[in-house]
Every structure is written in structure tokens, then in C-alpha cells.
Amino acid sequence: MKKNEENKMNKKEQQLQQFIRENEGEILTSNEGVKISDDENSLNAGDRGPTLIEDFIFREKMAHFDRERIPERVVHARGYGAYGEFELYASQKELTMANFLQNPAVKTPLFIRFSQVAGSKGVNETNRDVRGFAIKFYTEEGNFDLVGNNIPVFFIQDSIKFPDLIHAVKPEPNNEIPQGQTAHDTFWDFIANNQESAHMAMWIMSDRTIPRSFRMMQGFGVNTFRLVNEQGKSRFVKFHIKPVLGLRSLIWDEAQKIGGADSDYHRRDLWTNIEKGNYAEYELGIQVLEEEDEFKYDFDILDATKIWPEEDIPVKIIGKITLNRNVDNVFAETEQVALHPGNIVRGIDFSNDPLLQGRLFSYSDTQFYRVGTNHQELPINRPICPFHNNQRDGAARYIIDKDRIAYHKNSLAENTPYTVPGSKGGFVTYPSFVEGRKVRATAKSFEDHFSQARMFWNSMSPIEKDHIMHAFSFELGKVQSVSVRQQVVNMLARISTELATYVAKAIGAIVPNVQESQVTKSSPALSLFNTKVFPNTLKVGVILETGFNGRETSYFLEQWKQAGLQPVIIHDELGVVRGTDGVELKVDDSFLTGSPLLYDGLYIGAGQDVSDNFLWKTKSYVIETYNHFKPIGASKLAAPILQSIGILGKPGVLVEQNPTTFANQFIEAMTIHRFWQRA
Fold it and tell me: Is the pTM higher than 0.90?
């Protein structure tokens, strides 16, 4: 590799190079380096005789194959990841001594794994589910893992209930149905009987759980941590990750259909855009709370079923995250990455959040079981800074320790490896004051389960409320137990009478005579409709018939690309489609290989003569796009197609009159993305 290329690589990439190899053009050998002459025939006693146990080539190949799959994650099994870097905007020295938050000139390499919670590795990626959003920062002082979700709250307050939650949400054990979905009896039975989940239930029934893309999805650290500065002052903190492109979601009908059209929808979107150079970008933010303000609010700041409203505790944006490199091998990197909220660095510490406290054991225990004793030595998990200790042996040990000393304290090696005091960079636990009797109890300040659930409802736009009501109706409509359905409606009535009444009617339940929450507060940050969105990387399906207006279409495509849109040329057949003025365009999708579900908007460019086949297939694309409230544009010659469907002049349906004006109008329509007025 050339010297200037080496200089461009960050430390993590340089470290990984020694583990990366190219097999193309190389001689086939065994893992011990023995050159192999025949890899297609077992060693037999005669050409029709039994296979001999002495065939070491067969044994090595088959034994490795039998062990190629490590245990699947119990939760977050379906995941996809990418590398990137974190760039600090300004020093946070006043808040923390964490070294990666000190110098804006230093870029910190990182790895992000996005995931689904409930399903197995083979589940559709557009199912309604919480998404994991976990980051491993490879800092100069060790790895810091921010293991979060795309929802800022959680189902439970104490992690001892986590196995119960997951047992309830997983497929029911008697028939292993349904896969990767919450629409079944045991899940909603858990929710109804553990009403601390009421707030989370509102979030998961919202459009947050069917995101358009990993690149258009928020991340939250969920738990409460501490930041500690050089003076030993501690403050409470929550972490936020905000997408630069803004927030976008799918709608339920669309999400279900995409699951059939492309079950790899989210990972394909991330992979393809990074390969094209459309890097995924986010901003890292923090909510900071002074220790003396711990009991200032009407909720407990350590309760993971509660948010810190942004109007009360603003999010301070401190840096930018850019995902700019795909993995080389999904198993070696994405599957073997071992994320753990207990991986912290000096300047970051834990709070008494009871959900976090349990995660600190559970995650590390899981990684030791799943990936192995020495999982921290794997290339994806290895820190970029040197590491030395007295740990030895264990399965799959990578490091070869030459010295004979593996204990502390010692004199034979002058008591090395040696400890480092906090004043010289050693990790020191923040000395928070702890006292109290040993009890198994929930704090009184954790008992309000409905105020923030109501605040979430108050914060939704009418369209979002409609989606939530439909989501509850669908999910509970799949529940067979009349009792469970009624119990959930009883819980919803404590949040909103309007919500409970709608759902009860849809599923045949009774609206209970209970007092709904009287909370009037709303939080604008909770509505997806209150975030600015950009057209960058949104896909435009461009349906072209032979004889389309070559000059105008070429102009539109150029303008849209400059705005960041990604046109996808669609025609009857793959190959090229020819227009006027000698314009020929490469076809990306045929009607058969493409799908209107996979585009964020649609443009139709017809020729002078429109075939019946083109007309029929185009109409099916237009109707699907229109029913999902997406923008639709058409050339003058294609306007009769829209008129025949009866959508000409409807919101978000544009017909070209003036090329310059039309190009800009269509770009603006793509930023709006959904035209809910059609409903």
C-alpha cells in the first residue's frame, strides 16, 4: 500500500489490515498451511468404498463447517453494521475528562451495529420492532460502547424482568409463532400485567418502529450515565444520536409489503449508499443534568421508562458521526462485535439506574458465552490503544505471552504490568454516596406509569395518532384472548379515552369507566413531523416508455441528482430505453425486478405511443405510490394516465408545464415525502 494511502487510514483500519487477506489467486491450503491437491473428493477405500477417518482434509473442512455459526443473539439477532468516525465540534473538558471528548482535531474511529430486537437473524427487516443503535468508539484510552435503541425509553424499570419480557415477546413456545412480531397473546399479556410498559407501548405503536432507513433514524442511550471532569465533579447525562437527513418512517401497509419485496431492505439501503459515497451522518448530543437537580422533576431521572423532555433539559449537540466504510465480512465483524454498556472510559461512569445496573452483568455474560472467553482480542473488538494484564489462556487465545509472570503483585517483573493512579490517567470510579437497607422494592418515584405516556399522545399530530390507533387495533386484533384484549384497553383508557374508545370498538372490547391522565404537557421533539427532512439519497422511480422526451427528461434527472435525489430508471425490459433527441438511458429496474414500494417518489415519462402493457404496469405503480401518499410527477404526455386513475390535481401529484419550475416543484415535493391530505 502506498505511503499516502496509509496516512489516510485511521488507527482502527491500520490495526485491522494485519487480519485482512485476499484469497483470489492464492494456492489452496489447509489451515496448517499444507497445499491441497484435491478438495472435491474424500479419501475412500476404493472409488465406491467407505470414507477413511484418516482423511485430515475432510475432517478439517467439515469440523470447521459444523462450527461456523456461533450462538445467535437472543435479542438483536438481526443486525447490520458499518465503520465510521466521530468528530468533536468543541472540547467538553468542563463536563468530562474522557479523552475523545477533549480535542476537536482528533477523529475517533467507531463501529455501529443496527439491529432488530424481537426476531431471529432471518426475520424481515421492515417488521414493527424496536431497532438497536449500538456504537463502539475506539478511543485512545480504550473502548467506549454506547449501546442504545431508536426509542428513548424501555419496557421495564428493573433488569431482573428482562428475561420475562423477552420470553413474552418471542414466538410462543408451543408453536413457535409468530416470528419477530408483537401481535400475539403473550406479549400483550405481559404489557397489560406490567403497566410500567405503558409509555413504551405508545412508542412501539408509533411510526418510530417502522423506520424508512437506518440513516433516517434516531438513536438514544436510554439509560442514565454520569460525566465526570478532571476536578471530580459529576453530572448526569443521557446520550442522543440525531440523523442529519432528518427522520422518516414507513407506513404500516408499505412496511408489510416491502418485507415481501425486499426482506433485506434496511441493510441494502445502508450498504448501497455507503458504497456510492452517500455516507450516513448523525450528530451526537447530550442532555446534562446537575447532580443537585436530580430530584427537581416530576419523574425519576433514573427511571428508564421515562424521557427527559427536551424543553426542560435541552440536547446539546457536541459532534458528528459519519459512517463511511462497509464491513469486509459480516460474520467476522458485525456478528462477532461484542457490545457492552459496561465498556466505559475515564470520564464516563454509571448511575444507579436499575435497568443499567443489570445490563452491566447481562451483556458481558452474554458475550463470554456467545463469542468466547477471548472475544475482546478479536479484530473487531480490540482497542486501538495497547493493553496489558495478567489474564491468560481460555479458548481461542490470540495473544502469545512470552513472560512467566501472570499475577499481581510480583517482584520478578518489578510488579508489572503496573497500575496507574487517577491523576495520571487511571480509571477511578466516581465516589457517589450510597446507603440504605437491603431491600427488593421499587422506589416510590418510579410508580407513575401514565403521565409520560399521555404526554407522548399529546405530542402526536393527528396523522400520527391515527397510525397509533390503527397499530393498537391491528396488534390486539391478533390476540386470541378476550381477557388480554380487555386488559390492554383498560390500560389505554388510563392514557387516553379517545385512544381506548377507538381500539375497543375495533377489537370488540368495552371502554372502562376509569379516569384518563390529566397531563396536558406535550413535547414537540417527540413528533416525527417536527423534524426537518432533506431529499438527499431519496429514490425516485423514473418510469420511461420508448419515445420519451429525451431533452426534458435529461434535464430533470440532472437537476434531481444535484439536489441529492437518486433516480432509478424503470422500463419494460432491462437494457436501455430510447427517447427523442438521441437520448438513451440505462434501465436500472424492469417492472418485474422493481417495485413501487422501493421508491420514495415516482415520475412517469411517456412517449407519443403508449402500449397497453406499459399503461397497465404503470398504473399499478402509480396507484401503489399514491396510496402510500408519496409524490408523483408526470410529463405532459403521461398526464392522461393520471387522469384515467382519477388523481390528476390531487395533493402531491404534479404535471410538467414548465421544465424549470417542474424540476424544482418535484424536489420540494420529495422533501415533504408524504401528502397526508389524500387521506
Answer: yes
